[in-house]
Write a structure and sequence with these properties.
Helix content: over 70%
Number of domains: 1
Largest sheet: none
Structural class: mainly alpha
Number of helices: 15
Shape: globular
Number of strands: 0
């Protein structure tokens, strides 16, 4: 698979995404008050991951098609399997073999993790442990369907498939509107409930916005680059536009669980991060080419950190809570962050990295 050159700006975004996710999920445990005030909007980190995944995977597939005239399904699926399954499988095994690391009392059946379907009908009241694997299910559905969809587009000879992206974005709006009316009981509408998450937040059709924005950016840069260049948008302008969209989404979070918030916040966040992604791809943006050791290392560790951080936080608080280290103190937060990094490093160097080396040799 012909890959794009490494762009430090994307490492900055990936590092930002995992920090946002960590802060948001830390708020689900005992925590200092400042974590809740800073991290309450951190759920958008997953949407940033979706935008990045949509762009990077679509970019790879477009490059493959341009170079060889086709999309190598076998190569693509094998490389994705080596990238995702070993670390994910190891973490699933740990959760089921060692129940003491489970951060909640219940976990979804094993077959739902194996088949990447645990995000469908996920009820946090019944299956709260490792619930953040829902986003991996969405991405696996994306990995499965995007190459097949692109092959169909190429074989049908569609010269302009932008309407398809728009239709799928509209599908997300329609799904969330329908789900809000049909799936959520009237007395629970507008409230933060497990039912809202089950119908609005977790299902794949409801969470395609970020992936589609990423695909759209990759398609525009490959097939409509002259149109994009004519806009003459500076990196600073794109950063400001993205910030404005994210600020609007943050302002709307007061009605996040109402109909309007449920329908429009996700596309707003995705478009905002799409602007930031475009800014990082502009050669005029200094962050595009300025690399830092911290963001580079954090970006490389992001997947393993995403898999391990909830279990690490749970175990650290169970083991270290004392009068000297209060469970809701800043020192505990530091200890949890440190053990999360150590757990992620262990998973990366014992599982993820060896399989990536095998993949690069044989796939």
């Amino acid at each position: 698979m012909n890959c794009a050159p490494t762009i430090p700006g994307l490492d900055h975004l990936r590092a930002l995404a995992i920090v946002l996710v960590f802060l948001f999920h830390y708020g689900l445990f005992e925590h200092p008050t400042w974590v809740e005030s800073i991290g309450a909007f951190g759920w958008i980190g997953v949407d940033l991951f979706f935008v990045l995944s949509g762009y990077l995977i679509a970019d790879q597939l477009f490059r493959s098609q341009a170079r060889t005239g086709t999309i190598g399904l076998r190569t693509f699926y094998v490389r994705r399997a080596f990238r995702i399954l070993p670390a994910y499988g190891a973490m699933v095994a740990l959760y089921f073999l060692f129940p003491s690391i489970q951060e909640r009392a219940t976990i979804a059946p094993l077959w739902k993790f194996v088949t990447f379907t645990m995000n469908l009908g996920l009820d946090l009241r019944q299956h709260g442990t490792f619930s953040h694997a829902w986003s991996l299910c969405v991405e696996e559905h994306f990995y499965l369907l995007l190459p097949l969809s692109l092959i169909a587009v190429y074989r049908l000879g569609l010269r302009n498939a932008a309407w398809l992206l728009g239709a799928l974005l509209a599908l997300g709006v329609v799904w969330r509107t329908w789900a809000w009316h049909v799936g959520i009981p009237e007395e629970l509408r507008g409230e933060q409930t497990a039912v809202w998450f089950q119908w609005i937040y977790y299902p794949t059709p409801a969470r395609l916005d970020g992936l589609l924005v990423g695909i759209g950016i990759a398609a525009a840069l490959h097939y409509r680059r002259t149109w994009y260049e004519r806009l003459h948008l500076k990196g600073s302008t794109l950063l400001l536009c993205g910030g404005a969209l994210l600020a609007l989404a943050w302002w709307l979070t007061k009605d996040r669980y109402g109909l309007f918030g449920s329908v429009v916040i996700f596309p707003l966040v995705s478009l905002g991060f799409g602007c930031w992604l475009l800014a990082m791809l502009r050669p005029t943006t200094s962050l595009c080419f300025s690399s830092t050791w911290f963001t580079r290392q954090l970006a490389e560790l992001a997947f393993c950190l995403y898999l391990t951080h909830k279990a690490a936080i749970h175990c650290t608080q169970e083991w270290l809570t004392s009068e000297a280290i209060p469970v809701d103190g800043a020192l505990m937060f530091f200890c949890c962050a440190l053990t999360s990094l150590l757990a992620a490093l262990a998973l990366r160097f014992t599982v993820e990295r060896p399989f990536l080396i095998i993949r690069d040799r044989w796939a």
